[in-house]
């Protein structure tokens, strides 16, 4: 379920790495002596990963289709477990039973104005040997689509976002009783049928337009990396912004004896039939459409006039599924801690693909395996992690983050007591580091990036990351990257990968890392996401697989052995203050819009006068926006800032003062609950599974993050009462966070247990 990173290529002069010296400042959370030892072990670790091993593991794991429930996926789970064991880790497979629909019948045909039967199949390419494994491949479909047999007019809805339906409403065009056709992009795919159903549509087609994902971007596969005309993006359309995981077991692990909902009661399963198609299959449908010409921004790259409809084109869509319980296999491997064995530093990547999955996800998994091998090697040489390191290989991610969610729900109480961090990857490419996560981990990511060599420039991973921000960022980001801020910013986490249950349900400190931005992409979730494609067009030398292993492994080692967990809360306080400023700007913008509409209404201004699609009428008057109260949130942010500043003063001297073991243990026990303090016990409005007060996927963005989501989404929908209530709840969560940070600072200051 990897989100593609697209960054402009940046020309860099190679910068030689500076070797570690005795004058290097101590690592955060370490004394000067401990830092020297830690750096030596990290250097030994980073020397071990080998591109050739990464390449061979990718070739082996992607040799056959490896989706949830496939024979080869079960073989891969055993293979991955045995590799961990061969590296010296304790490793087991944990099995769950989950609802997994597979197609029973798929029909797509145009019945008017002419007859056309869609191919709905990806052809074998002689240049790509694994594309011919038809007997084992999942066909082109969207999992958790509804069953249905419908014939209806076709309406083109651009990307199918709420804003696109607002545009249709302005033109007086309804999708009620229609089948909509939307292009991929603009939002996560599951939003498209969700919004279509809410507007009365009876079916949904999703196609890859060549303007976004095909020949308009460059040469198509096999000549180049981009999506060919018959390529199809499969994908889940489960309503994951409500809750991810097995649709029948929300909130509990899907063990064999778990209590399950009836399928009819599972709210995350789509209510209408949904099918993904290629642009070769979409072209005859779009060409046959009549009705208004689409706005310029809605027009794709096909050689036709894009029209909205409804009109002459009528389509028959028939889908039915096998709604079966399917075994799911997670691999869990551990390297025991020597000092704080009950504190866990965790790292995961999923191992299930939609078909062969070389890029998504196995390019990330093979880096994880090479990290595990390298950690096992230095373990044999005498290195010991102070905290237990737990590595995971997840099953069922592609269909709704199922493996990670079921494991996290099943072990939730234990995780909230023990977990120090969860670090996620989900595939890997060539180019620049991308980082998202809990903002008090921002400094840790920056520090490690400064210590890892970029394989193409010879400089550091951090310098190339900096160059990417300068090339692609807005004015503020460019200024900060040029030296206005010590750390490059990491992004907030929305959804789309296995970090979701850890940070947004359980409140575990979380990072999501990966490389990308160079080279084209266009085989996502198709049969062409193969070893052949990856080795030709992605990380062709597999050196960025090594860079990912080096970067992630160093973060894991540094966190596992720190005497005081390396969290920096002033980054969190600054970021949260920025989110509050965005909410205030949103409030002001919404209030200004309402005031203008009401002015036009009161003065009898006919705003539709220049709009040929609507009859002349004055705008309807809206209720004036009430006062949205930010004073309490501002006070909470001030408290958080003061707490972070005090903690910085205390942690800087704590290690030098030889903090006692009892005080160290209590300080770390407090610190590892930092994200838990920001959870909302009742969860977010309309979706209580999501509990984090600062980060969540948007109800109508899917992957895209909504920060301070309860208040932000209430402001978006003009629900002023809920906005004020949510601001109070966010303030309460930040007050708890500030109190925790103060308490941790007191422990470090007094070197004693605080009652």
CA radius of gyration is: 26 Å
The fourth-level CATH homologous superfamily of the largest domain is Zn peptidases
Q: What characteristic shape results from the CA principal axes?
A: globular
> Biggest β-sheet: count, sense, barrel?
12 strands, mixed
What is the second-level CATH architecture of the largest domain? 3-Layer(aba) Sandwich
User: How many structural domains does the protein architecture include?
Assistant: 2
Helix content: 25-40%
Low-pLDDT runs: 3-22, 608-614
User: What's the CATH topology name of the largest domain?
Assistant: Aminopeptidase
- How many helix segments? 21
Mean pLDDT: 93
Describe the protein in words.
- The chain is of the alpha/beta class.
- The protein folds into two domains: 1-567, Aminopeptidase (3-Layer(aba) Sandwich), CATH 3.40.630.10; 570-750, Up-down Bundle (Transcription Elongation Factor S-II, Chain A), CATH 1.20.930.
- It is 37% helix and 16% strand.
- The chain contains 21 helices and 16 strands.
- It has helices at 32-46, 51-61, 71-86, 162-170, 191-198, 210-213, 279-287, 358-380, 402-410, 412-418, 442-449, 461-472, 475-484, 500-505, 531-537, 543-561, 569-603, 631-654, 661-671, 709-716, 720-750, and strands spanning 90-112, 116-117, 142-143, 148-156, 179-183, 203-207, 235-236, 274-277, 314-335, 340-350, 387-394, 419-424, 430-437, 510-518, 695-697, 705-707.
- Helix 1 packs across helix 8.
- The chain is globular.
- The two termini are 45 Å apart.
């Amino acid at each position: 379920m990897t989100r593609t990173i697209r960054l402009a290529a940046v020309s860099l002069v190679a910068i030689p790495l500076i070797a570690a010296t005795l004058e290097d400042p101590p690592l955060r959370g370490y004394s000067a002596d401990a830092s020297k030892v830690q750096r030596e072990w990290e250097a030994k670790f980073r020397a071990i990963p080998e591109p050739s091993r990464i390449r061979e593991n990718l070739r082996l794991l992607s040799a056959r289709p490896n989706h949830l429930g496939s024979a080869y996926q079960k073989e891969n789970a055993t293979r991955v477990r045995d590799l961990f064991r061969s590296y010296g880790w304790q490793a087991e497979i944990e099995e769950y039973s989950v609802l997994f629909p597979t197609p029973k019948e798929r029909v797509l045909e145009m019945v008017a104005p002419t007859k056309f039967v869609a191919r709905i199949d990806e052809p074998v390419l002689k240049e790509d040997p694994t594309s011919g494994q038809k007997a084992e491949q999942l066909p082109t479909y969207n999992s958790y689509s509804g069953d249905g047999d419908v014939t209806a007019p076709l309406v083109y809805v651009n990307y199918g976002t709420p804003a696109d339906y607002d545009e249709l409403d302005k033109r007086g065009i309804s999708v009620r009783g229609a089948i909509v056709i939307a292009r991929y992009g603009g939002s996560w795919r599951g939003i498209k049928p969700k919004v279509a159903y809410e507007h009365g549509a009876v079916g949904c087609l999703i196609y890859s337009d060549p303007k976004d994902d095909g020949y308009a971007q460059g040469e198509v596969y096999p000549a180049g990396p981009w999506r060919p005309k018959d390529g199809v993006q499969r994908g889940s359309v489960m309503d994951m912004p409500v809750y991810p995981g097995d649709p029948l077991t929300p909130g509990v692990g899907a063990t064999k004896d778990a209590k399950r909902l009836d399928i009819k009661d599972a709210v995350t399963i789509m209510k209408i039939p949904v099918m993904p198609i290629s642009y070769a299959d979409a072209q005859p449908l779009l060409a046959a459409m009549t009705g208004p010409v689409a706005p310029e921004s809605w027009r794709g790259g096909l050689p036709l006039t894009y029209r909205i409809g409804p009109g002459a084109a009528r389509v028959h869509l028939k889908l039915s599924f096998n709604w079966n319980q399917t075994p799911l296999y997670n691999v869990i491997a551990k390297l025991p801690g020597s000092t704080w064995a009950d504190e866990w530093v965790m790292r995961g990547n999923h191992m299930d693909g939609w078909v062969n999955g070389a890029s998504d996800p196995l390019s990330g998994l093979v880096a994880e395996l090479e990290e595990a091998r390298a950690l096992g090697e230095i373990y044999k040489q005498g290195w010991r992690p102070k905290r237990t390191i737990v590595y995971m290989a997840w099953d069922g991610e592609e269909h709704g983050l199922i493996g990670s969610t079921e494991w996290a729900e099943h072990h939730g109480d234990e995780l909230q007591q023990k977990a120090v961090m969860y670090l996620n990857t989900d595939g890997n490419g060539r180019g620049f580091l991308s980082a998202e996560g809990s903002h008090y981990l921002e400094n840790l990511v920056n520090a490690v990036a400064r210590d890892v060599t970029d394989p193409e420039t010879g400089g550091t991973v951090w310098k190339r990351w900096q160059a990417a921000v300068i090339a692609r960022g807005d004015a503020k980001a460019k200024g900060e990257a040029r030296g206005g801020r010590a750390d490059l910013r990491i992004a907030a986490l929305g959804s789309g990968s296995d970090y979701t249950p850890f940070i947004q349900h359980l409140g575990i400190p979380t990072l999501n890392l990966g490389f990308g931005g160079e080279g084209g992409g266009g085989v996502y979730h198709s049969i062409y996401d193969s070893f052949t494609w990856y080795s030709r067009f992605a990380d062709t030398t597999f050196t960025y697989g090594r860079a990912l292993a080096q970067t992630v492994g160093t973060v894991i080692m540094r966190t596992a052995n720190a005497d005081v967990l390396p969290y920096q809360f002033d980054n969190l306080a600054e970021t949260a203050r920025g989110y509050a400023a965005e909410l205030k700007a949103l409030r002001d913008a919404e209030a200004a819009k309402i005031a203008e509409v009401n002015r036009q209404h009161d003065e009898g201004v006919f705003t539709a006068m220049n709009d040929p699609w609507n009859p002349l009428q004055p705008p309807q008057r809206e209720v004036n926006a009430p006062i949205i109260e930010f004073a309490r949130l501002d006070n909470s942010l001030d408290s958080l800032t003061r707490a972070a500043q005090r903690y910085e003063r205390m942690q800087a001297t704590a290690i030098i003062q030889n903090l006692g073991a009892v005080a160290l243990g209590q300080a770390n026990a407090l610190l590892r609950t930092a994200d838990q303090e920001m959870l909302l016990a009742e969860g977010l409005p309309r979706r209580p599974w999501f509990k984090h007060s600062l980060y969540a996927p948007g109800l109508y963005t899917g992957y895209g993050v909504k920060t301070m989501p309860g208040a932000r989404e209430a402001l978006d929908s003009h629900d002023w009462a809920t906005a004020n209530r949510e601001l109070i709840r966010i303030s309460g969560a930040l007050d708890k966070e500030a109190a925790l940070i103060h308490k941790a600072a007191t422990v470090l200051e007094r070197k004693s247990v605080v009652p």
